[in-house]
Design goal:
Strand content: 5-15%
InterPro entries: P-loop_NTPase (IPR027417)
Number of helices: 9
CATH topology: Rossmann fold
CATH superfamily: P-loop containing nucleotide triphosphate hydrolases
CATH class: Alpha Beta
Shape: globular
Order of helices and strands: EHEHHHHEHEHHEH
Radius of gyration: 18 Å
Organism: Thermomonospora echinospora
Largest sheet: 5 strands, parallel
Protein name: Cytidylate kinase
Strand order of the largest sheet: 2-3-1-4-5
Distance between the termini: 48 Å
Structural class: alpha/beta
Helix content: 40-55%
Oligomer: single chain
C-alpha cells in the first residue's frame, strides 16, 4: 500500500497497530462505552475515533479541501443535511472513510503501550481494518437494532437533533438517521464478507454485559484484568 491519503499505510514503527483491538459498527451502538469499560478493566489505552475525527483532524480536513481546490470553509449546512438524500449522504460518508482512517492510523502508530490499544468508532470499517490486523478476531462490529437506536435517540442529547443551523431540522434529522442506518448496514455486509464478528445491540444486555461479550471475543489478546483499586 502507498502512503497517500486515500489508502491505509500500514507502516508500524512501534508495533502498535499490530496490537490494536478494533470496535467498529453503527452509530449509537455503545461502542465508546464498551471501549472505556474494557480500558478500565484491563489497563488498555482507549482511542475514540469520533473524538479525534471531529476535533484533532479538522485542520487536516481543511488542508485537504484546499489541496483539492475546494473552499476551506465548511460546506453549507443545508447542502449537507437538507437538500440531499440519505443515499447520497451515505455514499459520500463511505467514500471519505479511507482518508479519515489513514489519519486515525497516524494517531495510533504514534502511541507506545505495554498493553493493547482498543480503538472504537464508526469510521473503523472492516474493509479498512482487515489489512492492518493479524486476525479477524481482533475486531468486532457493533450495530444497534432499530428499537435500540430509537431508545438511544430518546436518551442521548447529542443524538436528538442536527444542530448545524439548518433550515429544516426535522428533515435533516430524518436524513441523518437514514444515512446512519445505511452506513451501519454496509458495515455489517463488509464484516460478514471478511469473517469479522457482528454483535447486534438490542438493549437486552446492559453495558457491562456487552463488554463481557466483547472481552470474551478479544480474550486471546487481552492481559489479565487489573486488580480493583482500593
Amino acid at each position: 500500500m502507498t502512503g497517500s491519503d486515500t489508502s491505509a499505510d500500514v507502516w508500524d514503527p512501534f508495533g502498535t497497530l499490530r496490537q490494536v483491538l478494533w470496535i467498529g459498527g453503527g452509530q449509537w451502538a455503545g461502542k465508546s462505552t464498551v471501549a472505556r469499560l474494557l480500558a478500565l478493566r484491563y489497563g488498555l489505552t482507549a482511542y475514540h475515533y469520533d473524538y479525534h475525527d471531529a476535533r484533532g483532524h479538522n485542520d487536516r480536513r481543511i488542508a485537504r479541501r484546499i489541496r483539492l481546490g475546494h473552499s476551506p470553509a465548511e460546506p453549507d449546512p443545508d447542502a449537507t443535511w437538507v437538500n440531499t438524500t440519505p443515499q447520497d449522504m451515505a455514499a459520500e460518508t463511505l467514500a471519505g472513510f479511507p482518508v479519515r482512517f489513514a489519519w486515525a492510523l497516524d494517531d495510533l502508530r504514534a502511541l507506545v503501550s505495554g498493553r493493547p490499544v482498543i480503538a472504537e468508532g464508526w469510521g473503523l470499517r472492516p474493509e479498512l481494518v482487515a489489512p492492518v490486523t493479524g486476525s479477524p478476531r481482533q475486531m468486532v462490529v457493533m450495530v444497534p437494532t432499530e428499537e435500540f437506536r430509537a431508545r438511544q435517540l430518546r436518551a442521548l442529547d447529542r443524538a436528538a437533533a442536527v444542530s448545524h443551523g439548518v433550515s429544516d431540522p426535522d428533515r435533516a434529522q430524518r436524513n441523518r438517521l437514514e444515512r446512519d442506518r445505511l452506513v451501519a448496514d454496509d458495515a455489517v455486509r463488509s464484516a460478514q464478507r471478511l469473517g469479522i464478528r457482528v454483535i447486534e445491540i438490542d438493549g437486552t444486555r446492559d453495558a457491562d454485559a456487552v463488554a463481557d461479550l466483547v472481552a470474551d471475543h478479544f480474550r486471546p489478546y487481552l492481559p489479565p484484568p487489573e486488580a480493583p483499586r482500593a
